[in-house]
Write a structure and sequence with these properties.
disordered C terminus; six-stranded parallel beta sheet
Amino acid sequence: MARVTLQTIANAVGVSRMTVSNAFSRPDQLSADLRDRILAVADELGYVGPDPAARALARGSTGTVGIMYSASLQYVFSDEVASEFVGAIADGLAGSGLSLTLLSTEEKGGRVPARDVPMDATLVFSSNPSEPALAWLRKRGLPLVFVDQAPIAGVASVNIDDRGGARAAAQHLVDLGHRRVGIVTVGLVGPFGAAGPAREPEAAESYVSSRRLLGWLDALGAAGVEPVIVQQPKVPYRPETDGYAALGLLLDADPGITGVVCFSDTLAHGVLTAAHDRGLSVPQDLSIVGFDDSPLAASLRPTLTSVRQDVAEKGHLAAAALVAAVQGATGEGDRHDVLPTELVVRESTAPPGPRAGHRRRRTKRG
């Protein structure tokens, strides 16, 4: 069977090859009747449309933007916050003509996504700034947009007020009367899976992690509270398992802990499950605060006090920044948006209960 080309259709309709091309790529250049007639003939002849690679080469653009994650791409589909964020970006790109590609920083089989995947711009999401993938993106000269990254000059960025939100979470426990507090987080420089005194981060794989730790320490330090911190690895992504293990590490380090602040709602879920399995009542024996205010927070029992971030707005702002980056909009690289956070108080927090002191004495004797 002979290959059907634009010229084949042009000959059948009695128009030029350029007119047929416009029917597919620039429909506004033709009358509706002529375009419909061309498309009907193309369909009858079995033409599937211009070759995407050839069109990209001719335009000098791919029509695709990427989102780069440090974590496994499974994270995007298994985490409610990440999936809502990507959905908001896709919604924000609707009508722009841009497609979305998910990229991992992992290199497999000699393929380096940041180097090899065709795209017009890339959104870098909560990635380690020392990742080789980020260096590849810079070498390619691709326009970048940062989300949950440290802002830098010349790159548009979108963040939330992580420090303020974490400060509000810790202050909430302080105001309730908690003076023995644990922190469960991810993304700081090791050691992982060990409890120890909290201190301001000297280095971090995650900008968000460092900002939230600073916020917790702002409130706890001002109240004279010296918390115990457990940090779990960011990769592999297993927050509920890591949160479950973290409570044991915290109580081994300080059996008198009555309140815990967590990096995410999913980590808090693990802490909550571990508390139940230990026979601890939440919030009477242990108060727990999450972060994100994901749908999970309101579905847990007891419902989870959490710090709300507007994930949908963050995604829409990121999408707008991507479109502007592709279009080369002047001044967009100097735009740095910071969205507010809000503490949402639910059932998982309360003043330290009368059993807290009993639990400390009993644990020490045991």
